[in-house]
Amino acid sequence: MVSAKIHCAVAVVAVLFLGALLPASHASTARYIAPAPSPASYVAPAPSPAHTTPAAPRPSRIQPVFVVQGVIYCKSCKLSGYNPYMDASPLPNATAQLVCYGDKVMNMTSTPSDKNGYFMVMVYKLDAFRRSKCRVYLGSSPTPLCSAPSIPSNRWLGLTLEKERVAASSLPKGVRGVYRPKSGALMFGPGSSGKCPSA
Asked: Which of 2, 148, 163, 178 has the most crowded CB, counting CB atoms within 10 A?
């Protein structure tokens, strides 16, 4: 009898104990379940870089060109490179103008002349270049002390062109012809003051 009561009491205590534990166990389990990731927060792994062989570079196309070149001098001024036979010195940083007349006028400024007075114009519009219709004019001078037109004697007078005799094998690729003013040179001279630039 006493034994049955003890077993009954133990059973009741066990049920109460389990009843007290189960809600806490469920609650604690629910507290630690990680939420499923939302579709918006999912980031796909970066793809591995593709191993491709770079395409071979295309050979650059050489553009055909006409070249007009010459020398610009300062007349009667003894500067660096003075030529006593010409009574003139190379004039650095001067320019010439190439004008070709036709349906449309093409007007181009030369490169600034170098220390030897050399200038150049590269003409890429082949259809606009006709030797008989092109003229070279004095452009700009780097100093007012040598800016008066000498050859030609007027800024509005242009010099005709002549083709230089250059072996085709010695021309750079793409150059269709080299031309120069028929006079051989362009010249500025001292202005009305007659003073020359300092050497």
From this structure: 148
Closest CA to 121 of 142, 104, 133, 135: 135
CA dihedral 109, 113, 114, 120 (to 10 degrees): 50
pLDDT digits (tens, 9 = 90+) for 141-153: 999 999 999 999 9
Q: Of 83, 66, 62, whose CA–CA distance to 180 is shortest?
A: 66
Q: Rounded to an integer, what distance in angstroms lies between the CA atom of residue 190 and that of residue 148?
A: 6
The whole-model pTM stands at 0.68
Domain 65-189 falls under CATH 3.80.10: no
- What is the per-residue pLDDT across 124-175, written as a single tens digit (0 to 9) for each? 999 999 999 999 999 999 999 999 999 999 989 999 999 999 888 888 889 9
Question: Would you kindly state where each structural domain of the chain is located, as residue ranges?
Answer: 65-189
